[in-house]
Amino acid sequence: MYLLYCFFAIVNRNIRLILLMLVVLSSRLIFIDAGFGSEEDAWGYAVNAELMEESHTYEYARLPGHPVMEYIYSWLPLKEAWLFNICTVLFSTAAVFFFFLICERYRFNAIMGSLMLAFTPAFYIHGSDAMDYNWSLCFLLGAFYFLGQRWIILSAFFLALATGCRITAAIALFPFLLYLYIAAVNRKYLIQYTALTLMLIFLVYAPVFKHYGLSFFDYVNQFGYPPLIKSIYKASFGVWGTTGLVAIIIAGIFALKEYFRNSYSSAYKPLVYSVLLLVAMYVALYFYEPHKAGYLIPVIPFVLLFILLFIKNFIHQSMICAMLGFGCFFAGINLADENRSATPSDFAVIRTIHHQHIAFDILRGSVIDDYKKRWARIHYTNKIIDAANGLEGNILIISGYWLNNLLIQKEGREYDNIVYRYYIDKEEMQQLSAKGTKIYYVKGQDVLNDLCYKDQFTDALAQQLVTDTPQ
After folding, report:
1. DSSP assignment of 157-201
2. Quick count: other Cβ atoms within 10 Å of Cβ 1?
3. In a domain, 446, yes or no
4. Distance between CA atoms of 319 and 325, rounded to whole angstroms?
5. Looking at 278, 307, 336, which one is the last position of a domain?
């Protein structure tokens, strides 16, 4: 990482920027071949794109709708994983571009700051899959850059696009307004910016309103609050990686210490207060629904801006950058559950924590583990399909979080007698069984099916689908 930075330092600004974009672009392209991603929702976008293309009408991939991405994916000429992933690669690269411009505007080390963002594990992982996190961040950073330039219309437009990728981006309106208020912008512009942003968000979500009314707000989490230790893991190691987390904690403590000493120019007050509010709001939102580390991707560049403001020393910045990058490829703390994750290396130490197998793997960091996990899930999905296709009679498979993978990977080898479902209630299971349908569940989905309907009945009415090849 240090040699890369030194190389950037000897060329002029425009060439540095071009080279930086090429580094980000190429470092993501090598991972685009492993399906749509390790999250089931990434495969859901592929299912939805095909549905929208066939129906010629808007459909949401999942609540509460992500119309910007859903429309773009449906317009792609090919519904192939590599093409979806290339779109994300481009938006991830654009996000780094906007962050470079933001760092330049505040006279921070733009190359170092951009490399920190590019090689933060959570951002890196979702830079080559079909998920919405980096799309939304790209537009969010664009909105923040244009806000600083006082290009209010562009900022509002980009914030609306960010919200159209992930509705949670809308909360950034509050720290953005705080930025303008502290910067002593005329109150008339504050009102105009608020009205314009809300109007554009409404327009972006107009297809969702038209098709579903207000029902898209009816989302209910059927599975309850996850274990606290799991939520904390995702918010820490899941975002920053192991070594990166150490660097961010140390740098963050130092930066906060300098902040409370007021050791910064008053010209930075709009930046500082808006950044602190944005991070606090996203962290609070995450712990309301702490299901994915990707939910905290929007805080990454703003935490880095706060650190860059107070840590100016090049060596210290280099160490932070190197530790973030190291955690992408080495010293990972990764899930080691059968079929859901990658096989740990021979040097991994595996422990059971809160009923889950966790691998402490010195040879495999977050990014490498996620890439191998994507392939592991593709292979297991094929095993499910092969096992189901070997059954006779009318078959229903309770698939749970494997459903989207199954709907895509079974194309070209469908059987009319086999139906894949997400989850299914007791009454319907009993009705289908009475009509002669054999009901199976993918390993582990019996527990979640019971949890979904707050009852225990799945094992009594269905049997586990055997995916292991007999010895």
Report:
1. HHHHHHHHH-GGGGGGHHHHHHHHHHTT--HHHHHHHHHHHHHHH
2. 18
3. yes
4. 10
5. 307
CB 367 within 8 A of CB 28: no
Can you read off the two tokens belonging to residue 276?
């602190």
Q: Quick one: pLDDT at residue 471?
A: 36
Domain count, the chain: 2
Do residues 261 and 87 lie in contact, with contact meaning Cβ atoms separated by under 8 Å? no
User: How high is the pLDDT of residue 213?
Assistant: 78
| Buried/exposed code over 107-123 (b: 16+ C-beta within 10 A; e: otherwise) | ebbbbbbbbbbbbbbbb
Q: Which of 17-26, 31-40, 217-226, 422-431 has the lowest mean pLDDT?
A: 217-226
**Statement to judge: residues 409 and 271 lie in one domain:** no
Task: Report the alpha-carbon distance of residue 464 to residue 468 in Å, rounded.
Answer: 11
- Helix or strand (DSSP H, E) at 333: strand 332-335
> What is the pTM for the complete model shown?
0.94
CA dist., res. 356 & res. 169, Å (int): 32
Query: What average pLDDT does the chain have?
Result: 92
The reply to whether 187 and 66 lie within a common domain is yes
Structure tokens at 81: 């994983």
Same domain, 294 and 170: yes
| 11 and 143 belong to one structural domain | yes
Q: Nearest 5°: CA angle at 384, between 127 and 443?
A: 90
Give whole-number Cα distances, 420 to 57, 96, 115, 141, 395, in Å: 24, 40, 43, 40, 9
* Range of the structural domain that residue 422 is part of: 390-464
What span, in angstroms and rounded, lies between the C-alpha atoms of 52 and 47? 9
Give how far the C-alpha of residue 43 lies from the chain's centroid of Cα atoms, to the nearest Å: 13
**Residues near 375 by Cβ (< 8 Å), separated by ≥ 6?**
34, 35, 342
Domain presence at residue 315? no
CA-CA distance, 141 to 300, in Å (whole number)? Answer: 11
Tell me the pLDDT band of 12, cut-offs 50, 70 and 90: confident
Rounded Cα distance between 383 and 455, Å, is 29
Residue 288 lies in a domain: yes
With a CB cutoff of 8 Å and minimum separation 6, the contacts of 254 are 310, 311
- The reply to whether 69 falls in a domain is yes
C-alpha 364/C-alpha 348 separation (Å) is 9
> 10 Å Cβ neighbour count for 91?
21
d(CA 44, CA 84): 12
Give CA 274 to chain center in angstroms: 23
> In sequence order, what are the residues at sequence separation of 6 or more whose Cβ sits closer than 8 angstroms to the Cβ of residue 56?
none
